[in-house]
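Progress against Task 2.4 (sequence-to-structure conversion) is shown through the following example record, which the project officer requested during the mid-term review.
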Amino acid sequence: MRKSIALIKCWLLVLALIAIGALAGYGQIHHNSETPQDEDYIKEVIGSLDEFNILRLALEQGDRGDGQHHPWMDIMKKLGIAQVTFTFKFEWRKNRVTNLKQRNIKFHPVYYQYDVYFKDKQKLKEITNTSLKKVVLEEASNGARRFIGRILNRECLDVSTEGLVYFVLLDDERLPAVVEMPEFECRQSGGV
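C-alpha cells generated for the chain above:
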C-alpha cells in the first residue's frame, strides 16, 4: 500500500511539473540587464531556429542562461559544437543520487536538433583529443546530480528509484539549457 502511494505521488509530481511548463530548464534565469549586444545575439539565435525549436520557444518567453561563462564553452565554439547532450542512468537511495553513469554523449553543431550530431570519426577524434569531453562530462554529471536531487527531494523522500536523466550543455552563457524531466519510478527503500 505504501509503495502504491509513493508511486502515485511521484507520478503526480511528474505530471504537475510537466503541466507547469514543458520548458522545465536547469539554469534558466530571466535577465533584465542584457546589453544591446546580448539582445542582438539572442535575436540572431532566435532567427536561426525553427519556429518550434524548444530553445527558440524558451528565448521568446524571455528565458536566458545564467550568465556564467566557462572555459569549455570557448573550446566548444572553436570545435563548432553548439550543444552537448548526455544521457545518464541514475540510482536514488536514501534521498540522494548514489550512482550516476553516463550512457550516451553526443556533440551537436546546432541547438536542440537531436538527430543532427557529429558522426564523422575524424571530427570525434578531434573532439576527444582535447580536454573538452572530460570537462563537460564532469560539469554535466554535477549538474545532473543537482537536477535529480531538486526533483526527487520534493516527493520521493525515503523511497528508492532508478531511471534516466537527459542533460544539456550549450556553448554560450546567455542561452538557457532546456532539459527534460528525468524518467523514474519511485519504490519503497526496502524493495530495491
